[in-house]
């Protein structure tokens, strides 16, 4: 006789795959992704990749690009988390970094200052990789830091922990220069 499948895990793989597609930020089940421009870029790459034959060279290249983008995002997020923890936000770091479609800017007057600090972070520190396009999600994070009166301190810490170096100069070169 035909009986219904009562296995609660039967659709588990399908759910994981669906979550993987919906999660555009870094890891599966990461609820923090927003419908920001960088998410749409990644989403479009996933859609195109899924229409290709998995044995094809194009599929492999796109799959690598998707993986690389996710790894870069994870790295940036961990840099931010590191600084937040150094500033004493150990318990709050994850919630400060959590940005969802429901996130709002607490005070519209903070938006200008948040943009200004985000630009300074990208120009004067190495917290973002060189190829990084400014991410809207970090405006929300900076808005929260402004509300906590910690944004300027965050920038100072980022400047120390991730200093901008002239291209081609390594960390040990600049330390030797300061020791002379």
TrEMBL record:
InterPro entries: Melanoregulin. GO terms for cellular component: melanosome. It holds the Pfam family MREG. One of its GO terms (biological process) is melanocyte differentiation. This is MREG protein. It comes from Casuarius casuarius (Southern cassowary). The gene is Mreg.
């Amino acid at each position: 006789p035909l009986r219904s499948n009562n296995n609660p895990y039967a659709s588990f793989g399908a759910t994981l795959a669906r979550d993987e597609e919906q999660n555009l930020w870094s890891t599966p089940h990461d609820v923090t992704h927003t419908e920001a421009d960088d998410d749409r870029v990644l989403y479009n790459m996933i859609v195109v990749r899924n229409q290709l034959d998995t044995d094809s060279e194009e599929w492999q290249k796109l799959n690598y690009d998707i993986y690389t983008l996710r790894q870069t995002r994870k790295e940036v997020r961990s840099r931010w988390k590191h600084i937040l923890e150094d500033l004493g936000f150990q318990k709050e770091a994850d919630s400060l970094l959590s940005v969802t479609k429901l996130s709002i800017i607490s005070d519209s007057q903070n938006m200008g200052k948040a943009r200004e600090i985000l630009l300074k972070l990208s120009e004067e520190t190495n917290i973002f990789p060189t190829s990084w396009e400014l991410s809207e999600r970090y405006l929300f994070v900076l808005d929260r830091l402004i509300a906590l009166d910690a944004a300027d301190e965050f920038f100072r810490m980022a400047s120390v922990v991730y200093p901008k170096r002239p291209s081609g100069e390594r960390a040990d070169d600049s330390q030797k220069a300061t020791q002379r």
